[in-house]
Amino acid sequence: MELTPDRVVEESQWVRERSAVVVPLLNETRNQLGELFDTEVGTVTEAEYREEVASVFADGDVAVNVAGYVALLRELDVRDDYPGFVVDEVLGRELAATIAGGQPLSLLAQATFHFADTITHTDGTAGADDLDAALAAGFQTRLPGWEWRERPNPFAVARNQ
Q: Start and end of every DUF7984 domain (predicted)?
């Protein structure tokens, strides 16, 4: 596989166009997590998702890595699937973390990936459901809607202290 600027554009378009699959999964993941943590989580529209895809791919350093993970997962297949369980899980987890950004969001996205993966069943290659779960986990983590992210953090230290 070769990643060129043109290939990164192609992968970004594929991720953007995947909104009809990813956004419902993203919102279902948020709903189930909200129930588990007894909180309300905002829903995400396809337009919000597509705008966030553009933001992720606007950063070239992030874009090339996201495109690489996406391309690998789109093509990854393993006869009988189970022997390849580890590689698609690792790639999915890392894709979710890369989309989400730095700590602590990347760790939350990795954990959310495993949760989303349990409710994701995509026909196709072994990596297909991991790809959808990773996109849902990564984007749901970075997008607004979680109350704890929208209020001031009580651990922030004022600049003048």
A: 1-158
Residue 160 pLDDT: 85
Q: In this structure, is residue 89 part of a structural domain? A: yes
Name the 3-class secondary structure at 146: strand
What gap in Å lies between CA 52 and CA 146, rounded to an integer? Answer: 16
Domain count for the chain: 1
The amino acid sitting at 26 is L
- The model carries a pTM of 0.92
By the 10 Å C-beta count (0-12 exposed, 13-18 middle, 19+ buried), 2 is classed as exposed
- What is the token pair recorded at 156? 């922030």
pLDDT tens for residues 65-105?
Answer: 999 999 999 999 887 766 667 889 999 999 999 999 999 99
Whether residue 66 is contained in a domain is answered as yes
Give residue 120's domain range: 5-149
